[in-house]
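Enoyl-CoA hydratase/carnithine racemase structure dump, as promised
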Amino acid sequence: MVRSRGEGLVRVLTLDRPDSRNALRPADLSALRTAVAEATEPVVYLHGAGDAFCAGADLDVVSTLDDPAAFARQGQRVASTLADADAVVVCGIDGAARGGGVELALAADVRVATPDATFAEPGVRFGLFGAWGGTVRLPRVMGEGDALEFALSGRVLDADDALRTGLVSRVAADPRAVADEIAEGESDALRVIKERIRDRRDDATREAAEATAFETLVERHAASIRSDRAGDEEPHERDS
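structure tokens r here:
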């Protein structure tokens, strides 16, 4: 189950199956993808209910899948929706993130852990691995060496380990406050910064796109200033 609610400039998405540590079934993945795609706020905050962020795929469901590859592709689509959303996606991890939960976090733009957060890719211990884009994103985020050691060992990282390896960008008692902080930025600038940093094309193409996007924002900013000045001057012109 995924709950979605707007709170000012932040769309809060809650993975809400605390009795299963927020393990995800196909219906939950569909609901999460829809909630992200429909968000109109400049910032999306994703977190889990209860004492875990997300235990990953519901293994009771996985063991009965007729088409495991289709389930993997569904998880990949959800992760891509998070990564490609116009909104800045902030993931707040409190408690355990395991398997697919780590992969959802990897797709977010900003990952913030509480001091109680822990991370692991335990699939290797029972013959599986993270297939929701994890093998693609993990080395980008952690670097190949740490990514290999993390995924191959199945060991649990605490919040400090996650910060050291780059798996999270900050450790904070209240990850939601980071989402609110980011939401204070101008929405067009937030969107453009995300687009430019997420761009995977060659450097020359990215730099050209960066310059064009900067020009657009400057022109929009200048137009806003001119409009504000015109509004300030208009009463004086009527008085004269």
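The first helix runs from residue 26 to 38.
lmk if u need the other ones
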